[in-house]
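anyone seen this seq b4? input:
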Amino acid sequence: MAEFMSYPAGTPCWVDLGSPDLGASRSFYGSLFGWEAQEVPDPDAGGYTMFTLRGKLVAGLGPLFGEGQPSAWNTYVSVDDVDKTAEAVLGAGGRVLAGPMDVMDAGRMAVFTDSAGAAVSVWQPGEVKGAELANEPGAFCWSELDTRDLTAAKAFYPAVFGWAVGDSGAQGGPMEYYEWKRDGETIAGMMPMPPNIPAEVPSFWLTYFAVTDTDAAVTEAQALGGSLLMPPMDIPTGRFAVLAGPHRETFGIIRLA
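predicted toks r here
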């Protein structure tokens, strides 16, 4: 098991889904990944739900708050100080969508867009450090920036999180690919926006979940009401596919090599 008690600052640590129908999303992801749903009892939480696997936190689910806001999976990066990170975001050309706020005693968070328009969240841990399981079937295992402006991203994330970008490599696929590194360790990925993505879709962070069988998971997701956006493909790190959930939210799955 890949269990985590904490995350170094600058490391993706949590993912959650904004959904217009919490019940439908609980059912879909519970069936697909074997998650159990635990709604936070505090009325101020707005129905926020913690997904667990074998009793360990793996992801979150919450309602949409803005008119016309699309359903989407959100990547959170652990930071030591949300307020200082907000200043760094503005200084690097990003925007603050939701300013620093306390989430009861769980931690402190904010939501930004990078200088190319990709939304990314940050988490200053309190009692909740992040996902307690990761990098194993049924848990998130990778965060990837699909961007329309590689040059802007290569400037923004080092300025905000201190990341370095690795050399381009195809990673066994047809497109260039980059690895984000923190203190020499790979912590996320980046690639140019795929050409088949509609022009109106902004840059975005794609969340990947590990599975034991990619093809079987694709079949199950479609039976549950999801759709296939990119069919299963083998790369050196495993076999992956890209799916959309019941509210058109995009996510990836991969059987890790």
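The two ends are 16 Å apart (CA to CA). Residues 58 and 131 are 5 Å apart (CA to CA). kinda curious what u guys think
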